[in-house]
């Protein structure tokens, strides 16, 4: 049973924390502001995000909002969790699942990690835990993820999760003063089950 107080309208929520082999996925708290600022303030992190590098005050507000994004009550709801290493307790990033369609049972997956934590498989491990929640608990049919076409590391995470490239949108929108190119990857519940 979850120890986190949830809204009374909650339909689906993980039991917190979600534990993986090396990680603890948990709701954000006010004490996370400095850790979030350590990566969300960096230009190399914001390069492929819709946000610009965040100020300390913007990070504080983002953490305040994220602290309440921990359950699904309806379409558009987000579960946005801090990714923390078990061995040293360091917060290294965040992972999200957004309930995009109730009728079509679809959600969008996302992840952001501190560059110091890149290359260790943490994004794949954290994202896989949210995929499991989405398919096993929520009963989703399809989960998709998107990334800038230049962000090949993110595309590789999606591939390691068993997701297929469904689209490559070329120059489809203006993004930070340039034409954006975007990959869309997805995985169906049946594909997820076959891969386990």
From TrEMBL:
It comes from the Bacteria. InterPro entries: Acyl_CoA_acyltransferase (IPR016181), GNAT_dom (IPR000182), N-acetyltransferase (IPR051531). Residues 23-185 form the N-acetyltransferase domain. Pfam families: Acetyltransf_3. Gene3D superfamilies: 3.40.630.30. GO terms for molecular function: acyltransferase activity, transferring groups other than amino-acyl groups. This is GNAT family N-acetyltransferase. It comes from Devosia nanyangense.
